[in-house]
């Protein structure tokens, strides 16, 4: 009833190739952006902004980054955490070297460092494929983590071995450091995430995105059609690491405030990978859905006993949350292996034929 | 398997298949609905009754397909690309589950028992095996190992398996030459032979053959169908084959169904189908004056719209 | 500097042969223990093409069940038998609930499912056994403890832990048995077929359900053995799960599908990282073990993209 | 009803659960006992809420955000990583952070960190005590010259923190410091580190470990036959479970401690009867009196005394985080007061001042006799003269790196 | 594209032997371990012709195509492409020089739609760099649309409008083959290598496919090398046929000559067609 494309004729290829060719989708996106930019800031409390929305957006961005590499280019990576760390440490160093430059600009620049590192660790992908490639990215993960601990210069030789984020402002509003309000940080994170997501979506629907998917779906055929495998893969590594690097920098600058090397450990890599797979490999929208599921669901689960006023220990809740998340991951994979993005498509398809079953 | 048990007129005997030259006087154009009466009869090995198949919960592919395969018969399933032949075969062999498809309506009876709920390996154990379209050899296994996996369900001892292996090698000498190569590296035709040979290794009562002739050299196509006929004659194996090479298929089959867009639109004795004008025109390519040249095909659309 | 890299380590090896032997032995033991974990991965990968991320947690789970049962008063050997039973139930459950509905799905989806399983088992295990580390019941199980020291020259001493020797023996026996099982039986061939193509395996009548249950059970047994051995070295705790990452380079080096590969890969990594850490690690401040294994694996892979004994990656059009 | 709300960031899951559980139980049980026995503090019950962090910084921050709005009085992160994240937030949100014997050593400088407390001692104090003790064994600081002292540590901020001090002392007293980092993902796999120890034959070993690292290290030490009486751990490597991993062979292993050993204290008895035996907690009765449990209790003692002091100073019954800060800064836990609360001799008397939030109090050494820890030394003073300048330099450095770091504006209540 | 053009209406092509040489294979041998896939084969392909390669299964036909477009590197022999002797080259270089192909086992990009698959054939012709792609609006979009037009022509030509937005993984085999042809056509190649384009098709579809091939050949002047097992198709479409058996060349000539060749009949045809 509500989801009918009938009557929406596209008269030009421009219209057909738009990001959201269907009117209802456009309206939906408009509503989401409205909620994100207006409704949430007006209504949400600090906890929701600082502990739900900001991490959610940061993770979404990281998931988009990994999706470029794994979902679109088919190169399995377990080094996301470390690449995010490179972004974080680079941004941190940049703020000490250029204390007067706008921190948002530095965060965006820091991505280039992780892009470069990502490309270096992407080099073996020419020869090594699939799960085997995962080990090279693991090498990156553990090696970089070790560097974060060992190279004192990276954290300005702080006794704590951690990086701590200085207070910086923009237009008179404090946006980083402990004094920044969750609202200010939320706006920064939201803007960067939406912007990068939009730019990446552009790349993905064009020639370059297509060449990544060609490599993913059948690298031999892609090569026989004139795609240079190494160049294309390295580009995917670089772009993916750039996005992850920015996400990593945002993670410490606008969310955690301080980070130890262990903040960028293999656990983080896996967290992002879950989001990508569960959201749907090869879908930008899916990255958001996956991030929401993996980050927000446990928070909700932990809150449930409190709401119901049941008295069980914090750790029992944690154990149950683990079990539920695990079970739900399996459940959703069984329901739809291609993730929430596909589930959403199927739902739309059903809406289209509604009220008939098919 | 004796001739007497095949009293039903539809289940033509192999001898009939050989009498290709004799013209058939009547053209049988049964509609699927009339056949339910014989589904339970003893001499049908497989009955598919009005099944509906949906992929991914939303894509309806088969819209009520019914067919029967008589014991010892060779039944051909013809139809254009995407008509649903493969889907029908997979519905029978229960491989749909692996593709997120399901049979939502109708029933499938193999040797008098409903089999929709069984697993594919149960079905193989009961003697019904499928040769999948597109080869699907085990790439990392050698040709010989591939063949031996076909005998996985057999319990009749190494010697019997060994002799069957020999049999397959006699059918396909090319396989003997390449027996130790990894199947993934063999040529397309070699893989096709391997897939067929693998099915033979299970000593089935019934084989579902999906496009056996695809990618095979012409003389091999003839050979494959000769093998089909031999197995059918000597061992009484029944066949349901989906085949694009209508010419050959109808020469060897006893009965044929034509499937379009998920529905059976025409069925009848092979001979009758061969003489049907539409079939001639659209599947056999024989116009009034013999074979048409591929060079002279016309450019406007000439698709048959079946009335069903 | 150059001297430190190229000369000094060898001088040391020569001057302290007892220590070098000890390093080799430690490398051997570490290799064997890595191989044990890797073995569990190999089993399941071979049989389904699934990279079983949950192997690490299965190790912990098996160990905890054994110790937990014993703590509750079950005699050690009975606890062992009961644990085997638990692993069988687990295998059946995983096959029924997780694997069966996901047949013929892409590898990464199955990988993800095993990660879901990992989460579930972590929560479940901690719920039942609590999060604190437990002591492995080494002696109760009749495993040797203590150590033997061999005098070596003047001041030299090579110390062999009995439990390490037991671990090596058990690992080798297990690898032998599994290798025979996989290569000599009809099931072995079927497993490799399944790993290649689920649907085709179904079509020739291989019962994925049965095979998967068997293999997950076998992996559970390997996990139990691993849990006992690692538990005897440190403690049985959820932190052990992290060790499972060490199995990855081993696995990749040996080739995902090869049982002997797991052992040889384990030994290469074990020797390699111990020697590197002890003779070269000091140059960069030590602790290089956390990534060195991956670098070894990476270098090997550049020359053999399918690992040492892995099945060749077939590329054909 | 009015309550004073105390969130407890704990971890009973994850790789550090082995240590975390005992701490969590101790912290929780003491406060609960106060509620049961005295109806809280100053007549106001304490609302206790545990939040599980799994020793994970992300979750730690989430717990913080989730609880700070409920009027939290103080945070005990029990993780250096989480502490570091909370330090800058404390002054903004006006909730003090109590990192008892961990976290950022420099936080002892109250002028720079008015909101952070690391009473009773810092890591640097601890490290200096170990060196002091070793010197005692060897016959004076001068005889340290030419000795080799090994330092095995968790390769993270926590383990690396004492290194500057140890290096400085090594230079000053002429001993050689050998470092053996244990990567966090290798905690249970330390054979290389201990082989190195075996090769280097250090005269003493110092350990800064946590969680699963401790028992593994002790086992490995036994394995290479390192003389256990020359092996000294920090107070976080002092758990019974840690030493028990080495069993009888580990006898002689020593660890620093600043909280009481055993359960012969009236307050602990109260906990046993009123809380544990009454089934109001999940504590295993056998664990009462163990090192880490008692550590947790001590942590809660400091919280409780902080609240009490705050109540006295402000005259309020229900206090805020700001009041709590004042209370903690005026904390003066005397011998008499300890006796009053049924914990005579449980800890060294401790006093916090506006300048010094740690107090550099003395600690003692306990030794594993194969079955339990026994106190083997008296209270040993840290080398305040070395440590204090270091602390001040580090605090200044922190403030500079985090410029603009807020100046202290909080008045000193003393 | 929909104009009715039949082969007869075009001027009779010049005999193949007079046409310009496009590609020459000289004494090429290729073996894998012990298996000799190709032994000392020489033949040529001339501009504008339809060249068929036939032979029994495992004769080395596919391997021959793989050698031509650089996927396999022959141990011996040379390949001359437009007068230049080619050294060892990577497949993407072959593609950029104008060699496109379809595959025996369909090698489409399974996760992409028909449209994207065919667009992917135009990758080499598109050039807007990463930063334009990021912005999309402007040059990148214009370029995309320009190529989309070309692709839509191909879609019309192959009559696959209805499946434009369908992921190709779900298409039936025959349509997949057609999409694959479309993808190769999108590359606007000089030489088009077709590996069993009609396997698995029924007569009607084969007729369609034949028409496409002939049209491509005559309209775009694309040279075609074709492997096919349907003798009817081969005899009707091709100008010259080379026959392989066990990696060796056993015949080369016009369809009529080849059909009459006894060696070919023995090795391949079985009976003379
Ligand atoms: N896994 C699947 N998911 C969704 N749709 C599918 C799937 N498999 C097949 N289909 C659809 O089902 C229809 C019938 O396909 P099927 O493969 O059965 O045809 P076919 O008659 O065997 O064709 P061909 O002769 O080309 O092999 C097609 O339209 C196809 O798009
Ligand atoms: N990469 C490879 N490794 C090993 N053997 C190979 C490889 N590629 C081809 N072969 C072998 O070379 C021979 C020729 O193979 P090819 O694929 O060229 O045959 P074909 O003529 O295309 O046959 P078909 O008509 O069956 O497709 C076959 O025997 C095949 O097994
Ligand atoms: Mg089909
Ligand atoms: Mg071929």
UniProtKB/TrEMBL annotation, chain A:
The entry's localization annotation reads: Cell membrane
Source species, domain of life: Bacteria
What parts of the sequence cross the membrane?
27-44, 50-69, 76-92, 104-123, 130-153, 183-204, 234-256, 268-297, 317-335
The primary location reported for this protein is: membrane
Q: Which GO terms describe its molecular function?
A: branched-chain amino acid transmembrane transporter activity
Q: How would you describe this protein's topology in the membrane?
A: Multi-pass membrane protein
Listed A to Z, the keywords are: Cell membrane, Membrane, Transmembrane, Transmembrane helix
InterPro entries recorded: ABC_transp_permease, LivM-like
Pfam families xref list: BPD_transp_2 (PF02653)
Which Gene Ontology terms of cellular component type are present? plasma membrane
Would you tell me the protein name for this molecule? Branched-chain amino acid ABC transporter permease
Higher taxonomy: Bacteria, Pseudomonadati, Pseudomonadota, Alphaproteobacteria, Hyphomicrobiales
From TrEMBL, chain B:
Q: Gene3D superfamilies, from UniProt?
A: P-loop containing nucleotide triphosphate hydrolases (3.40.50.300)
ATP-binding in keyword set: yes
What are the protein's UniProt keywords?
Amino-acid transport, ATP-binding, Nucleotide-binding, Transport
Tell me the Pfam families matching this sequence. Answer: ABC_tran
- Keyword check for Isomerase, yes or no: no
* Chain segments carrying region Disordered: 1-34
List this protein's GO terms for biological process. L-amino acid transport
Q: Show the InterPro entries listed in the entry.
A: AAA+_ATPase, ABC_transporter-like_ATP-bd, BCAA_Transport_ATP-bd_LivF, P-loop_NTPase
For the ABC transporter domain, which residue ranges apply? 46-286
Gene Ontology terms, MF aspect:
ATP binding; ATP hydrolysis activity; branched-chain amino acid transmembrane transporter activity
Cross-referenced PANTHER family, in alphabetical order? ABC TRANSPORTER SUBSTRATE-BINDING PROTEIN (PTHR43820:SF8), HIGH-AFFINITY BRANCHED-CHAIN AMINO ACID TRANSPORT ATP-BINDING PROTEIN LIVF (PTHR43820)
Q: Which family does it belong to?
A: Belongs to the ABC transporter superfamily.
The identity of this protein, by name, is ABC transporter ATP-binding protein
Q: Can you name the source organism?
A: Roseibium aquae
Automatic annotation (TrEMBL), chain C:
Segments traversing the membrane:
20-43, 50-70, 76-94, 106-129, 159-182, 211-230, 250-271, 278-303
Q: Where in the cell is it found?
A: Cell membrane
Keywords assigned by UniProt, alphabetized: Amino-acid transport, Cell membrane, Membrane, Transmembrane, Transmembrane helix, Transport
List, alphabetically, the Pfam families matched.
BPD_transp_2 (PF02653)
Which GO terms of the cellular component aspect does the record hold?
A: plasma membrane
Q: Can you name one GO molecular function term for this protein?
A: transmembrane transporter activity
Biological process annotations from GO: amino acid transport
Superkingdom assignment:
Bacteria
Its predominant location is membrane
Instruction: Report whether DNA repair shows up as a keyword of the record.
Output: no
Q: How does it sit in the membrane?
A: Multi-pass membrane protein
- State the family it belongs to: Belongs to the binding-protein-dependent transport system permease family. LivHM subfamily.
State the name under which the record lists this protein. Branched-chain amino acid ABC transporter permease
TrEMBL record, chain E:
Q: What is this protein's record name?
A: ABC transporter ATP-binding protein
A single GO cellular-component term on record: plasma membrane
Q: Where is the ABC transporter domain?
A: 23-271
Q: Which GO terms describe its molecular function?
A: ATP binding; ATP hydrolysis activity
Which chain positions lie within coiled-coil regions?
A: none
For this protein, the parts annotated as crossing the membrane are none
Which Gene3D superfamilies does its entry note?
A: P-loop containing nucleotide triphosphate hydrolases
Q: Which UniProt keywords apply?
A: ATP-binding, Nucleotide-binding, Transport
Could you tell me which species this protein originates from?
A: Roseibium aquae
Does the entry feature the keyword Repeat, yes or no?
Answer: no
Identify the InterPro entries for this entry.
AAA+_ATPase, ABC_AA/LPS_Transport, ABC_transporter-like_ATP-bd, BCA_ABC_TP_C, P-loop_NTPase
């Amino acid at each position: 009833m509500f989801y009918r494309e009938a009557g929406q004729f596209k008269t030009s290829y421009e219209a057909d190739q738009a990001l959201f060719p269907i009117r209802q989708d456009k309206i939906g996106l408009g509503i989401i952006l409205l909620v994100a930019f207006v409704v949430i800031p007006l209504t949400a409390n600090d906890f929701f902004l600082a502990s739900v929305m900001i991490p959610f957006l940061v993770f979404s961005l990281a998931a988009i980054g990994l999706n470029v590499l794994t979902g679109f280019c088919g190169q399995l990576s377990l080094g996301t955490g470390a690449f995010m760390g490179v972004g974080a440490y680079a941004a941190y160093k940049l703020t000490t070297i250029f204390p007067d430059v706008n921190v948002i600009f530095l965060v965006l620049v820091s991505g280039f460092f992780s892009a470069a590192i990502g490309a270096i660790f992407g080099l073996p992908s020419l020869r090594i494929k699939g799960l085997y490639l995962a080990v090279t990215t693991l090498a990156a993960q553990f090696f970089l983590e070790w560097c974060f601990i060992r190279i004192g210069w990276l954290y300005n030789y702080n006794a704590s071995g951690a990086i701590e984020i200085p207070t910086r402002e923009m237009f008179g509003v404090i946006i980083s450091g402990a004094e920044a309000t969750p609202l200010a940080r939320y706006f920064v994170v939201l803007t960067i995430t939406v912007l990068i997501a939009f730019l990446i979506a552009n790349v993905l629907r064009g020639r370059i995105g297509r060449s990544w998917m060609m490599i993913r779906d059948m690298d031999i055929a892609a090569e026989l059609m004139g795609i240079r495998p190494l160049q294309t893969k390295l580009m995917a590594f670089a772009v993916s690491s750039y996005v992850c690097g920015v996400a990593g920098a945002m993670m410490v600058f606008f969310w955690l405030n301080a980070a130890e090397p262990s903040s960028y450990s293999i656990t983080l890599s896996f967290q992002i990978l879950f989001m990508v797979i569960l959201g749907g490999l090869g879908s930008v929208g899916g990255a958001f859905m996956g991030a929401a599921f993996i980050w927000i669901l446990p928070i909700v689960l932990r809150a449930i006993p409190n709401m119901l006023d049941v008295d069980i220990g914090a750790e029992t809740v944690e154990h149950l949350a683990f079990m539920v998340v695990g079970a739900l991951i399996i459940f959703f994979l069984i329901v739809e292996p291609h993730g929430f993005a596909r589930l959403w498509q199927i739902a739309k398809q059903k809406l289209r034929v509604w009220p008939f079953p098919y | 398997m004796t001739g007497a048990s095949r009293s039903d007129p539809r289940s033509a005997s192999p001898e009939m298949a050989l009498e290709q030259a004799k013209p058939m006087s009547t053209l049988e154009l049964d509609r699927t609905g009339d056949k339910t009466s014989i589904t339970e009869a003893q001499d049908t090995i497989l009955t598919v009754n009005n099944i509906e198949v949906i992929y991914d919960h939303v894509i309806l592919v088969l819209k009520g397909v019914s067919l029967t395969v008589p014991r010892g018969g060779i039944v051909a399933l013809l139809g254009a690309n995407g008509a649903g032949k493969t889907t029908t075969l997979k519905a029978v062999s229960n491989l749909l589950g692996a593709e997120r498809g399901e049979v939502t309506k109708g029933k499938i009876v193999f040797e008098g028992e409903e089999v929709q709920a069984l697993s594919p390996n149960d079905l193989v154990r009961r003697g019904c095996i499928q040769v999948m379209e597109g080869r699907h050899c085990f790439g990392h296994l050698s040709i010989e190992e591939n063949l031996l996996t076909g005998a996985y369900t057999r319990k009749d001892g190494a010697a019997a398996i060994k002799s069957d292996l020999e049999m397959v090698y006699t059918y396909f000498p090319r396989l003997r030459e390449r027996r130790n190569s990894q199947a993934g590296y063999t040529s397309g035709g070699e893989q096709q032979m391997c897939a067929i040979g693998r099915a033979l290794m299970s000593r089935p009562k019934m084989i579902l053959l999906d496009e056996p002739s695809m990618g095979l050299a012409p003389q091999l196509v003839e050979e494959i169908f000769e093998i089909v006929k031999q197995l059918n004659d000597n061992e009484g194996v029944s066949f349901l084959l989906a085949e694009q090479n209508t010419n050959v298929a109808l020469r060897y089959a006893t009965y044929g169904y034509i499937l379009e867009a998920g529905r059976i639109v025409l069925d009848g004795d092979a001979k009758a189908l061969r003489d049907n004008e539409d079939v001639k025109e659209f599947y056999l390519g024989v116009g009034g004056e013999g074979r048409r040249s591929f060079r002279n095909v016309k450019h406007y659309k000439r698709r048959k719209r079946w009335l069903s | 500097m150059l001297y430190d890299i190229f000369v000094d380590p060898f001088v040391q090896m020569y001057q302290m042969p007892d220590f070098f032997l000890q390093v080799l032995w430690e490398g051997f033991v570490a290799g064997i223990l890595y191989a044990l974990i890797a073995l569990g991965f190999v089993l399941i990968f071979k049989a389904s093409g699934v990279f079983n991320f949950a192997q690490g947690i299965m190790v912990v789970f098996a160990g905890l069940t054994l110790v937990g049962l014993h703590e509750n008063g079950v005699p050690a050997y009975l606890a062992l038998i009961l644990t085997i039973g638990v692993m069988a139930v687990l295998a059946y459950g995983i096959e029924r609930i997780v694997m069966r509905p996901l047949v013929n799905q892409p590898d990464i989806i199955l990988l993800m499912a095993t990660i879901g399983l990992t989460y579930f088992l972590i929560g479940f295990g901690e719920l039942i056994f609590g999060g604190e580390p437990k002591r492995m019941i080494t002696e109760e199980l009749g495993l040797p403890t203590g150590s033997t020291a061999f005098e070596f020259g003047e001041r030299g001493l090579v110390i062999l832990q009995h439990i390490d020797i037991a671990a090596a023996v058990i690992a080798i026996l297990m690898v032998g048995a599994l290798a025979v099982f996989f290569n000599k039986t009809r099931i072995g061939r079927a497993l490799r077929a399944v790993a290649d193509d689920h649907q085709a395996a179904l079509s020739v009548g291989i019962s994925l359900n049965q095979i998967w249950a068997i293999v997950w059970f076998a992996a559970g047994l390997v996990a139990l053995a691993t849990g006992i051995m690692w538990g005897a070295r440190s403690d049985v705790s959820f932190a052990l799960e992290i060790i499972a990452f060490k199995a990855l380079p081993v696995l990749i080096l040996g080739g995902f599908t090869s049982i002997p590969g797991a052992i040889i890969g384990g030994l290469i990594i074990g020797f390699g990282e111990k020697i590197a850490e002890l003779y070269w690690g000091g140059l960069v401040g030590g602790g290089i073990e956390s990534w060195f294994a991956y670098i070894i694996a990476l270098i090997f892979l550049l020359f053999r993209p399918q690992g040492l004994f892995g099945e060749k990656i077939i590329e054909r059009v | 009803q009015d309550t004073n709300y105390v969130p407890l960031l704990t971890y009973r899951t994850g790789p550090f659960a082995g240590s975390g559980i005992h701490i969590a139980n101790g912290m929780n049980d003491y406060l609960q006992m106060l509620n049961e026995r005295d109806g809280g503090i100053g007549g106001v019950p304490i609302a206790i809420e545990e939040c599980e962090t799994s020793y994970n910084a992300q979750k730690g921050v989430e717990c913080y955000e989730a609880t700070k709005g409920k009027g939290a009085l103080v945070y005990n992160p029990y993780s250096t990583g989480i502490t570091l994240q909370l330090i800058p937030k404390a002054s903004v949100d006006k909730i003090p952070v109590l990192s008892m014997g961990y976290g950022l050593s420099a936080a002892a400088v109250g002028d720079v960190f008015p909101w952070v407390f690391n009473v009773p001692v810092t890591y640097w104090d601890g490290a200096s005590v170990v060196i002091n003790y070793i010197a005692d064994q060897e016959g004076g600081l001068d005889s340290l010259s030419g000795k080799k002292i090994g330092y095995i540590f968790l390769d993270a901020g926590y383990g690396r923190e004492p290194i500057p001090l140890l290096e400085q002392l090594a230079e000053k007293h002429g001993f050689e410091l050998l470092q053996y980092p244990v990567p966090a993902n290798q905690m249970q796999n330390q054979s290389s580190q201990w082989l190195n120890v075996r090769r280097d034959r250090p005269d003493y070993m110092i350990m800064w470990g946590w969680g699963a690292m401790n028992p593994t290290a002790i086992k490995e030490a036994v394995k290479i036959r390192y003389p256990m009486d020359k092996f000294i751990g920090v107070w976080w490597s002092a758990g019974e479970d840690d030493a028990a991993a080495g069993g009888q062979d580990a006898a002689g292993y020593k660890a620093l401690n600043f909280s009481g050993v055993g359960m012969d204290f009236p307050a602990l008895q109260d906990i046993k009867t009123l809380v544990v035996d009454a089934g109001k907690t999940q504590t295993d009765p056998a664990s009462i009196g163990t090192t880490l449990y008692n550590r947790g209790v001590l942590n809660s003692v400091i919280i409780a005394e902080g609240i009490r002091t705050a109540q006295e100073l402000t005259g309020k019954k229900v206090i805020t985080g700001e009041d709590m800060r004042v209370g903690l800064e005026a904390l003066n836990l005397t011998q008499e007061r300890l006796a009053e609360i049924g914990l005579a001799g449980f800890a060294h008397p401790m006093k916090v001042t506006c300048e010094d939030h740690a107090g550099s109090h003395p600690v003692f050494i306990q030794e594993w006799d194969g079955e339990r820890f026994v106190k083997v030394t008296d209270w040993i003073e840290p080398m305040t003269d070395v440590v204090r300048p270091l602390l001040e330099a580090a605090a200044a450095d922190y403030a500079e790196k985090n410029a603009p770091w807020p100046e202290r504006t909080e008045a000193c209540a003393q | 594209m929909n104009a009715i053009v039949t082969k007869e209406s075009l001027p009779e092509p010049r005999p193949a032997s007079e046409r310009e040489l496009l590609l020459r294979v000289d004494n090429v041998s290729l073996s894998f371990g012990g298996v000799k896939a190709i032994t000392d084969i020489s033949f040529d392909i001339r501009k504008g012709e339809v060249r068929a390669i036939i032979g029994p299964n495992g004769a080395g036909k596919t391997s021959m195509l793989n050698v031509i477009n650089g996927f396999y590197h022959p141990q011996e022999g040379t390949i001359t492409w437009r007068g230049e002797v080619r050294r060892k080259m990577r497949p993407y270089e072959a593609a950029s020089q104008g060699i496109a192909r379809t595959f025996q086992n369909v090698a489409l990009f399974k996760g992409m739609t028909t449209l994207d698959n065919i667009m992917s054939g135009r990758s080499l012709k598109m050039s807007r760099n990463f930063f334009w792609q990021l912005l999309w609006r402007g040059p990148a979009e214009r370029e995309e649309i320009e190529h989309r037009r070309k692709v839509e022509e191909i879609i019309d030509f192959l009559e696959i409008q209805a499946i434009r937005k369908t992921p190709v993984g779900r298409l039936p085999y025959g349509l997949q083959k057609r999409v694959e042809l479309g993808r190769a056509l999108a590359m606007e190649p000089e030489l088009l290598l077709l590996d069993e384009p009609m396997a698995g098709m029924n007569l009607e579809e084969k007729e369609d496919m034949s028409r496409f091939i002939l049209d491509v050949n005559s309209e775009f002047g694309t040279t075609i090398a074709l492997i096919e097992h349907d003798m009817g198709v081969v005899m009707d479409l091709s100008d010259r046929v080379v026959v392989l058996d066990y990696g060796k060349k056993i015949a080369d000539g016009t369809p009529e000559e080849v059909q009459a060749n006894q060696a070919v009949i023995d090795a391949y045809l079985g009976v003379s067609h």
